[in-house]
């Protein structure tokens, strides 16, 4: 091999071309890696002497095309990676001379077509990736002679159909990846030659039906993925010949029924998933022959009941997921034969009681999840059948009491999660004998007191008591948890540092944020020598005594944001030699009230945002040699070079929203390692042409506003990747302004009222540009060659420019776009074809324009579009087939137009529509139950129409219908409703009778109606999860009867202002322990403060 190594790498260098000397005669180079360089072409004859080359990596460059015999000479080549380049075309003779290649990777390019027989004469090619390109069809000849191919990746393309003969050539194929295409049709014989296929992925396509025999030839198929399609039915014979299947995934389809015959022959099946479909029941014989099944996913369906015997044959089942259904019970011996069951998830159902015996048979259960149900009662012996249980989670229920013997037999229990319940007190002995418990979550309950007899958990490491009502901890409260590592007491009512914490000498995290602590006293943390993180944010600390951090020699993170302390010593931090992160936002840090930082020699991150810093010595940072990040946003001083005179390791600095700054050439001289500089919303009085030139590592820069003449200030910043220039008074820029910044991937030029034109020359060398925002300028025209040199642009923001008219070909060179914003651009029409070729566009914003007529075909090739914004235009009528080519559309806004109705065919193609915005139109009635998207819609906005009636579906989760003429909310009869947010402000409601059925409501707004009686007892009963209630200006006279005491357990915000309530009526309010805000002005009450003693969080 002589002088040449066998492995040569230039990875992530600035190499623009491969030196021909690398492959000199007899060089012996076997591996050449030039990934992540800046190679834009391969010179002819580069590889003519590369006879020994086996592995060639050229991914993450900017090659635009190939040419014939490109790799001629590399006759031993086995692996070729050209992924993530910018290849648009491929010469048919590209691979001439490399007949023995085994693996080729073309993924992540811009290929739309492949030459006929392109891969011919590659007898040894085993692995081929064409993923994430723009291929729209596969010809029968494409893979015709690839007889050795074993793995083929075609995922992330634009394929819409697979026809017979497509895969006739690669008969040895074992793995075929077709996920994330746009497949709508697969012919019955498309796969008939793939007799050796073991893995097939068809997920995330647009399949509505499958031919019954489409998989018949795949006798050895092991894994089949069909999730995220639109399949509503599978023929019973679909898997009849696939007897070797071990995994099937059918998640996120619309299947309502499964026939036992579908899987009865699949005796090898081990993993079966059909989550988030529309199953309402399971045939008791469905799994009768699935005796090897180990993992079963059934979450996110509409199962109300599961018949005993359904799981009787599943003796090997280890994991069962039933979350997000409508189950009210799981009694009756459902798991009596599931002796191997280890994980059971029943979260998000409607279970009210946990009954002893329900888990009979599940003797090896290790993890049980019952989160987000309606559990109010747990029987003492509920867990007796699960002696090996490791994790028990019953978060977000309505549990008030934990039976003392519930955990008594669980000697392996390590994690208990009882968060977000209504537990006010835990009896002594609740956790008795649980020496194995490591994690205990009791946060978001109503605990007021913790005593030592409760926490006798000698191995406990994690204790979460946050968001309770704890005022103090007994001196001995934590004696029983000597190995505690993490203690979270956030958002309680502590007014001092609990002395009990000094019993936990192994503690490394202490969270005390958002309590009522006003003073840090000397020696309070003296025993916490292992503490690493101390968070005191949001306590309004007024005094910090000298020595208050004594003993914290291991501390690495300290935060006391939003406090106004008086520092009693300049040497407050002298004991914190190992501190690396310090957060002091909003702490009134000034020259008259400050503390020295120079003792913090290990400090890495410092945040002093929202402090005036007036009078602080400019050299106060000079001793921080290890500082890499500092944030000084919203200060009241003028920064200059003296503040950064000697911080050699500084990488990030932020001055956002400060006083004006003059950037001279010495400003950053003391911080040569800077990578990110933020000087946004800070007036720049001047910018030296050399201000940034010495910052060779600068990758992110955010500047503006500036009113002077902008010179070539970025010529020395070749590493720059992100640049935002806000309000820089730009009228124009020289053609070469950005030519030195060839690595730019994110560019923002916004807020320049005199910038009327974008020059194509600016983007001449921006081959990596991914994000371009030129919003809020005065651009009136886009030239058709503007984007010729930005082939991988994904996000383009043009909002708030007076474009008025767009050329039909303006976007033809940006086929990779995923986001396009044309809001508020004065557009009056869109030429048909303007969006052609934008196959991967996901979000399109056209709001706030003057569009009135959108002809059919406007959106004809937007196959990937998920979000379309057409709000605030002048649309009176929508062509019924306008959206026919956008099957993936999930959210559309037609707010503030002139619509009176929607054609029944309008959204027929949108099988997964979830969010519909129709506010500000002229609808008189709206019946969601008759719409084609009734089963998928979860968000509906109908504000400011002329509605007299509205009817919704049980699955809707959010409805706003303010400013209409409604008196009721109609719905189809159901035993469940998922509505969580309802706003009917300014309507004609006189009662809440039609609303009471929505028992999952969390937010309710009935402001500006006429509801004389607001029955709080009924509200507490019907809406147990209600957190927000707005009922102002409703002429409320009464809060109902008070026969029985009630509690609005979750209510946090209540507005009863501008009603006619008396003091006597207000006194009827039950307990609201979590109430934070109460508005009751302009009623007939006096002495309202006497009511507040029942509002614990107020």
Automatic annotation (TrEMBL):
Keywords: Leucine-rich repeat, Repeat. InterPro entries: Leu-rich_rpt, Leu-rich_rpt_typical-subtyp, LRR_5, LRR_dom_sf. Signal peptide: none annotated. The keyword Nucleus does not apply. It comes from the Eukaryota. Pfam families: LRR_5, LRR_8. This is AGAP007059-PA. It comes from Anopheles gambiae. The lineage of its organism: Eukaryota, Metazoa, Ecdysozoa, Arthropoda, Hexapoda.
């Amino acid at each position: 091999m002589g002088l040449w190594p066998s492995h040569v790498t230039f990875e992530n260098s600035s190499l623009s071309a491969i030196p021909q000397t690398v492959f000199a005669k007899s060089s012996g180079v076997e591996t050449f890696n030039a990934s992540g360089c800046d190679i834009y072409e391969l010179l002819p004859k580069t590889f003519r002497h590369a006879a020994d080359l086996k592995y060639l990596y050229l991914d993450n460059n900017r090659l635009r095309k190939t040419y014939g015999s490109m790799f001629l000479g590399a006759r031993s080549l086995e692996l070729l990676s050209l992924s993530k380049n910018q290849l648009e075309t491929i010469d048919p003779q590209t691979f001439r001379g490399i007949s023995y290649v085994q693996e080729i990777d073309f993924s992540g390019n811009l290929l739309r077509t492949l030459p006929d027989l392109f891969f011919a004469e590659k007898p040894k090619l085993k692995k081929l990736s064409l993923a994430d390109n723009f291929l729209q069809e596969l010809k029968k000849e494409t893979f015709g002679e690839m007889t050795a191919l074993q793995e083929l990746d075609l995922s992330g393309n634009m394929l819409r159909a697979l026809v017979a003969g497509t895969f006739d050539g690669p008969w040895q194929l074992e793995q075929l990846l077709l996920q994330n295409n746009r497949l709508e049709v697969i012919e019955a014989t498309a796969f008939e030659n793939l007799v050796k296929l073991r893995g097939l992925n068809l997920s995330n396509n647009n399949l509505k039906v499958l031919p019954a025999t489409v998989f018949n030839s795949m006798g050895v198929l092991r894994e089949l993925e069909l999730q995220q399609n639109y399949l509503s039915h599978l023929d019973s014979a679909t898997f009849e010949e696939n007897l070797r299947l071990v995994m099937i995934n059918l998640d996120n389809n619309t299947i309502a029924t499964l026939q036992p015959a579908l899987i009865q022959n699949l005796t090898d099946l081990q993993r079966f998933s059909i989550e988030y479909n529309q199953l309402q029941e399971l045939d008791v014989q469905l799994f009768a022959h699935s005796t090897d099944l180990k993992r079963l996913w059934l979450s996110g369906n509409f199962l109300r009941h599961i018949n005993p015997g359904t799981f009787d044959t599943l003796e090997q089942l280890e994991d069962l997921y039933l979350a997000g259904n409508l189950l009210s019970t799981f009694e009756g011996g459902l798991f009596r034969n599931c002796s191997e069951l280890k994980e059971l998830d029943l979260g998000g159902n409607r279970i009210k009681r946990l009954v002893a015996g329900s888990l009979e048979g599940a003797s090896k259960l290790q993890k049980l999840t019952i989160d987000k149900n309606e559990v109010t009662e747990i029987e003492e012996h509920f867990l007796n059948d699960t002696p090996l249980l490791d994790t028990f989670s019953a978060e977000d229920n309505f549990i008030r009491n934990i039976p003392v013997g519930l955990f008594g037999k669980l000697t392996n229990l390590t994690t208990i999660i009882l968060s977000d319940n209504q537990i006010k007190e835990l009896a002594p002995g609740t956790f008795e004998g649980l020496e194995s418990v490591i994690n205990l979550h009791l946060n978001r309950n109503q605990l007021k007191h913790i005593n030592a007899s409760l926490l006798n958990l000698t191995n406990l490491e994690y204790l979460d008591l946050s968001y309770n009502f704890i005022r103090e901890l007994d001196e001995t409260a934590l004696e029983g948890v000597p190995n505690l590592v993490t203690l979270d007491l956030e958002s309680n009512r502590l007014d001092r540092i609990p002395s009990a914490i000094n019993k936990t000498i192994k503690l490394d995290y202490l969270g005390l944020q958002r309590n009522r602590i006003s003073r840090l006293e000397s020696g309070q943390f003296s025993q916490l020598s292992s503490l690493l993180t101390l968070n005191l944010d949001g306590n309004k600390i007024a005094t910090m005594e000298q020595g208050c951090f004594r003993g914290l020699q291991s501390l690495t993170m300290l935060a006391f944001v939003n406090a106004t302390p008086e520092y009693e010593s300049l040497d407050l931090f002298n004991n914190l030699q190992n501190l690396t992160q310090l957060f002091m936002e909003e702490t009134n840090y000034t020259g008259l009230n400050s503390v020295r930082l120079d003792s913090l020699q290990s400090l890495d991150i410092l945040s002093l945002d929202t402090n005036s810093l007036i009078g602080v010595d400019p050299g106060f940072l000079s001793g921080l040699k290890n500082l890499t990040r500092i944030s000084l946003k919203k200060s009241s001083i003028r920064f200059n070079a003296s503040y950064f005179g000697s911080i050699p390791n500084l990488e990030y600095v932020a001055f956002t929203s400060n006083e004006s700054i003059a950037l001279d050439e010495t400003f950053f001289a003391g911080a040569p390692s800077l990578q990110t500089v933020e000087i946004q919303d800070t007036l720049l009085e001047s910018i030296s042409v050399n201000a940034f030139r010495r910052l060779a590592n600068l990758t992110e820069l955010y500047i503006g506003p500036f009113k002077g003449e902008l010179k070539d200030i970025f010529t020395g910043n070749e590493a720059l990747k992100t640049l935002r220039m806000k309000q820089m008074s730009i009228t124009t820029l020289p053609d070469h302004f950005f030519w030195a910044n060839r690595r730019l991937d994110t560019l923002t030029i916004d807020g320049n009222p005199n910038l009327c034109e974008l020059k194509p020359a600016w983007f001449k060398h921006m081959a990596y540009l991914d994000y371009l925002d030129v919003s809020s300028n005065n651009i009136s025209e886009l030239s058709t060659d503007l984007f010729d040199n930005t082939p991988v642009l994904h996000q383009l923001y043009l909002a708030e420019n007076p474009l008025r008219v767009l050329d039909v070909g303006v976007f033809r060179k940006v086929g990779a776009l995923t986001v396009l914003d044309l809001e508020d651009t004065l557009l009056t029409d869109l030429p048909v074809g303007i969006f052609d070729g934008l196959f991967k566009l996901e979000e399109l914003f056209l709001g706030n324009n003057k569009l009135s007529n959108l002809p059919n075909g406007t959106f004809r090739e937007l196959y990937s579009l998920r979000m379309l914004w057409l709000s605030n235009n002048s649309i009176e009528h929508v062509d019924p087939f306008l959206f026919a080519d956008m099957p993936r559309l999930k959210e559309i806004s037609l707010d503030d137009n002139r619509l009176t109705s929607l054609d029944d065919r309008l959204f027929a193609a949108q099988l997964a529509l979830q969010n519909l915005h129709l506010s500000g139109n002229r609808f008189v009635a709206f019946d969601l139950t008759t719409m084609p998207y009734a089963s998928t819609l979860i968000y509906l906005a109908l504000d400011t129409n002329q509605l007299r009636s509205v009817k919704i579906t049980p699955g809707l989760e959010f409805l706003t219908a303010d400013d209409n003429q409604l008196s009721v909310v109609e719905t189809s009869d159901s035993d469940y409703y998922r509505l969580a947010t309802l706003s009917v402000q300014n309507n004609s409601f006189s009662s809440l009778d039609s609303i009471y059925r929505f028992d999952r409501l969390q937010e309710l707004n009935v402001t500006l109606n006429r509801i004389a009686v607001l029955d709080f007892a009924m509200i507490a009963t019907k809406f147990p999860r209600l957190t927000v209630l707005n009922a102002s200006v409703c002429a409320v006279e009464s809060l109902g009867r008070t026969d029985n005491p009630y509690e609005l357990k979750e209510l946090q915000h209540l507005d009863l202002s501008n009603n006619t309530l008396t003091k006597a009526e207000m006194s009827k309010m039950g307990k609201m322990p979590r109430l934070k805000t109460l508005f009751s002005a302009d009623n007939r009450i006096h002495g309202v403060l006497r009511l507040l003693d029942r509002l614990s969080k107020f």
